[in-house]
Design brief:
Blueprint: E1 17-27, E2 32-43, E3 48-52, H1 59-67, E4 74-79, E5 82-83, E6 91-94, H2 107-117, H3 124-137, H4 153-166, E7 171-175, H5 183-200, E8 204-208, H6 211-217, E9 220-224, E10 231-236, H7 247-262
Parallel strand pairs: 3-8, 3-9, 6-7, 7-8
Antiparallel strand pairs: 1-2, 1-4, 4-5, 9-10
Helix pairs in contact: 2-3, 2-4, 3-4
Bound molecules: adenosine-5'-triphosphate (ATP).
Adenosine-5'-triphosphate (ATP) binds next to β2 and α1.
């Protein structure tokens, strides 16, 4: 899963996740596709770190690499100081697609299955109590014995989030988890995710191509240029709200990111 122990890792001040100069190239039958180009960033404990960029800039590719599914062509991904070489229960991925649950298992059985197979629990009893705890957190206690096909898209995503958090990963990886939802449900799910974060302060890496969503969900935002993805800027979006109180700050940051993505020419990494 991870290579040998790194004695230089100090949990008090080291990042949980370090992505260093990561370039990822796909080899197709007749050509290479460079998805990301020398991307670097650090994610610290309890960050809500967002990768933001237009379609095709390599956000999903980066997330899959962090998940251990795609090795970088160049550069390194390190989790708690150890090089990521394959998937592991310390990094749980939540996808956009609604079919990420096992359709032949109930909501509660889906969470129990992950807990036992991911090695988090040894007994069904222990897994059941953790599953019920997290299903309650996502307000799905009443639907614990339902099968996935009887749930709405938003409810299925809540199960996937409960399952992810129940695993207590070092970092929760979310790839446009709300993109396929209707606009109202999407806003509601963003708020619910923030409420959950307030309770447990889990470390989150969240991919989106929506500027609004990045500002609402993120405490830090990495803006990536169009294909191939390079770091355009890293921004602090801590304490931004979409309510009236923060409206002018919110729209100033929104406009700034919009310009970076669609107006300005690529520049070196800019701090904020
Ligand atoms: N398996 C693959 N084989 C070849 N090229 C690929 C593969 N997967 C992705 N790509 C290419 O890599 C680039 C980055 O794709 P990726 O899906 O990571 O971007 P993205 O930013 O997540 O896009 P979106 O927001 O549309 O999901 C694109 O040019 C894409 O066509």
């Amino acid at each position: 899963m991870l290579d040998s122990f790194n004695p230089s890792y100090n949990p008090a001040c080291s990042p949980i996740l370090r992505v260093e100069n990561v370039t990822i190239r796909y080899q197709t039958d007749d050509h290479h596709v460079t998805a990301t180009d020398r991307v670097s960033f650090d994610v610290f404990e309890s960050d809500r770190f967002v990768l933001l960029g237009p379609s095709g800039c390599g956000k999903s590719t980066l997330l899959k690499s962090i998940g251990g599914y795609i090795p970088p062509t160049a550069g390194d991904v390190r989790l708690k100081g150890k090089k990521v070489t394959e998937p592991g229960p310390d990094r749980v991925l939540v996808f956009q697609e609604f079919d990420q649950l096992l359709p032949w298992k109930t909501v509660r059985q889906n969470v129990i299955f992950a807990l036992i197979n991911g090695g988090r629990c040894k007994t069904e009893k222990e897994a059941d109590s953790i599953a019920l705890h997290y299903l309650d957190k996502v307000k799905l206690s009443k639907f614990k014995d339902n099968y996935p096909h009887t749930l709405s898209g938003g409810m299925k995503q809540r199960v996937a989030i409960a399952r992810g958090l129940a695993m207590k990963p070092s970092i929760l990886l979310m790839d446009e988890p709300f993109a396929a939802l209707d606009a109202l449900t999407r806003l509601q799910m963003q708020d619910e995710l923030l409420e959950l974060w307030e309770e447990t302060k889990f470390t989150l890496l969240f991919v989106t191509h929506s500027i609004e969503e990045a500002i609402v969900v993120g405490s830090r935002i990495l803006v990536l240029s169009p294909h191939p993805g390079q770091v355009r800027a890293e921004l602090n979006s801590h304490k931004m709200t979409r309510g009236e109180a923060g409206a002018s700050e919110f729209s100033a940051l929104h406009d700034r990111i919009y310009e970076m993505l669609f107006v300005e020419k690529p520049t070196a990494r800019a701090g904020a």
